[in-house]
Design brief:
The chain has three helices and two strands, in the order βαααβ. With about 60 residues, the protein is α+β, with helices and mostly antiparallel strands.
């Protein structure tokens, strides 16, 4: 189930991605649930306190061997 993260002072998208164990911040930033936020804040490093970032569920990586 996706989580809502309310931005606090000094948060940026890469820091939020690290907190939730995402290697690449674009997985969160480009998620459709964050489209409204992305249109308001064109720079992922410039978020304002009170903004809500939706952190999607992690999908397990599968590889063939």
């Amino acid at each position: 189930m996706p989580k809502n993260h309310t931005v606090v002072q000094s948060d940026h998208i890469a820091k939020i991605a690290e907190k939730y164990h995402f290697f690449d911040y674009t997985i969160i930033w480009d998620d459709g649930a964050n489209a409204d936020l992305k249109s308001k804040r064109t720079n992922p490093n410039l978020l304002y306190p009170g903004d809500v970032v939706v952190v999607p569920d992690k999908t397990p990586k599968t590889e063939t061997r």
